[in-house]
Amino acid sequence: MRYFLLKNIVEYLLIKAQFIKIIRRIDNNIIIIEFNNSNIIYFDLTKSNSMIFKSKEKLASKKEFQAPFDVVLQKRFTNAKIENIFLLNDDKVIRFITNSSNSYKKEISILQLEFTGKYTNILILDENEIVLEALRHIDENSSFRVVKVGVKLLPLPKKDIVFKEEKVDDIEEFLYNIYENKEENNFELIKKQKLNIVEKDIQKIENILKKLPKKDELELEAKEIYEKANLILANLHNIKPYQNEILVLNSENIEIKIELENSKNPSIYTNKLFKNAKRAKQKANNIKIEKDNLKDKLLFANKLKLNIENSNSIEECEFLLPKKDKNQTKTKKEKNYESFFFEGFKIMLGSNERENIYLLENSKASDFWFHLKDRPSCHVIVQNSKKTIPNSLIEKAAKLCVEFSVDSKGVFEVDYTQRRNVKIQHGANVLYNPYNTIVVKI
Length: 442
Hints:
Layout: H1 3-16, E1 19-27, E2 30-35, E3 39-44, E4 51-53, H2 68-77, E5 80-87, E6 93-100, E7 108-114, E8 121-126, E9 131-134, H3 171-211, H4 215-234, E10 245-249, E11 255-259, H5 266-309, H6 314-320, E12 338-342, E13 345-349, H7 353-362, E14 368-372, E15 380-382, H8 391-403, E16 411-418, E17 422-426, E18 429-432, E19 436-441
Antiparallel strand pairs: 1-2, 1-5, 2-3, 3-4, 5-6, 6-7, 7-8, 8-9, 10-11, 12-13, 13-15, 14-15, 14-16, 16-19, 17-18
Organism: Aliarcobacter thereius
Pfam families: NFACT-R_1, NFACT_N
Protein name: NFACT RNA-binding domain-containing protein
């Protein structure tokens, strides 16, 4: 981030920002700050690619960030009055000095945004410049300037550089343009990457479906194994230890040859056959359930692909298919719903009847429930602990409900209400009242 831009932004904030209403992390390296009322600015502290920008649409949170850094960030600066904003030592470091309005006594906090290349960081300090938290902690083995909780922060070394001075006529428009240029450069690439991931999933599911054995084949296999086991059992007295085969009469009185496992005790082999026959029978009974589950997954994956193809921004792409954390462990546990995150809220979607039932049975009374009006659809639950949710969240959840429930474009009505107003009748069939309705066009 260039010095003259930071200087112009600080001059703008000194006029336009008297207090911080909302502050939180929405991506690994991005924080959103809402100054005064609805003056939203995003600070991206990615190493070697930091930037400050504005967006005409509010950007969604990638996930719920609950690290100690996030807890301290919100505790110290939510609804905080800004006492001063300046560039520290005329360097590429923005320092906010704030006073918490939640405290009975004056509590000074410092939010320090360092746009300094590979050492880029977000620091939270007390009035004595003791580190309370940081986006990136730095130990004494990595730098002379230690960034650790409880340690006084050393100043950055003064650079003998004369930064270029330049005036930006319309800084707000400039900040909007930064984001639009960023979106334009990355959007098609990210969309292509997301589509490749989904297409691989679709191919994988289709291959599993093709290789799935048929029910009648499994039933025939079970029948043949049972018959073989019963014939061996009936002729155990004629089988000698370590015998390889035996000639017996089958149910149609025809002499057939049965191969035996070369074992000392033929009865053990017989028990093994009965277990295999039982396993094949159970698989035959469960094959329809497995096939239906795979078809549901395939249907969801195809709808996800279509929605990514129709997306118009990086935000939409990332909302539909977020990046996985590097530390996220793989699990084979069966998913009970599809999950999405928006503005710090978790949105859960049931892509089939089993998942819809699970959501209905496991959601809280204060959660919000969404469903297409007067027609079958997926159930959508928004986790919530209050009486209301933001309008932007209502619109997002309703749109999600439509996009994964219908196969054509049009105008659709979505009913929504708190879960306490939804009464389960049978399975995923419900009655609900009172409720509100929102119109969604896709």
